[in-house]
Each structure stands twice: as C-alpha cells, then as structure tokens.
Amino acid sequence: MEHLSPRVGQVVKLASTIARGYDQEYVGTEHILLAIVREGTGLGATIMNQLGATEDKVKDQIDKLIKASLEDTWVFGRLPGTPHFRNVVARAIEEARELKSKNVCTEHLLLALLVEKGCVAHSALKALGLSAKAVRQQVIKHTNHSAS
Fold this sequence. Notes:
mainly alpha, 7% strand
C-alpha cells in the first residue's frame, strides 16, 4: 500500500493556502501544480524546472486559464477540492504503484496532472510544453539514478 509522502502533505496544505490567495473556496489542480513548483524541493519541481516550467511561467499560464465558473466540489482538508483534484490524487496513487514507489511523491502528482485532461493544470503544463511521456522519462531517470 502506497502512502503519501510528507512532502505531498506539505504540497496539499500549500495548495490550500494558494487557493485562498486566489480568493477561491476550493482547491483545484492549478493550486496543486503551483504548490509543487513553489514548494520546490521535490522531484516534481526539479523536473518541471529542468523542462523550463518555472514558478513564474506556471503562475502566468494558470492566471490565463482560470475561469469564472466553479466546478462541483468535494471536501479534502479544509477547502473542498474539485472533481479533477480528486482524480489527480487517485491517479497519483496509481502512478506510484506503476513506478513501484512505496510513497506517493510530487513526481506522481505531476504525472497525474499531465494525464488529467480538461483541468487547468493540464492545460498550463501543455502550454508550457510538458508532456506525460517526457516527465515520466525524467522520473524514471531520476529514480533509477537515486536507487543505484
């Protein structure tokens, strides 16, 4: 059974703070994405930076993509999360399993954001030129390197 890493817990809390900063009453994929890059120490942030997706670029893309209409919400922590948020967390767990990781980490969240089509974070990552294939290759490269 995979467990959320302490860093993922920090990212989720930071995502909630970022959502409040946007005066939004939900946590969405865009907040997770910003939290990954803002937290900055996880493999997800490292890979994003290596592929040119800096915090400023991510924030600019998200600001362009945020829409006035809100999606249905569900509760995760203190702020409700969108359906996409729920899907991303579930997909991150699957990604960790597929990559034989004992913990769900930021790189798994990043991969999940890249496959959750129709959400703000996916659109932002796509606009920044990131693909699930390229990020997966980087994750495998980094995790194989650190395991040896």
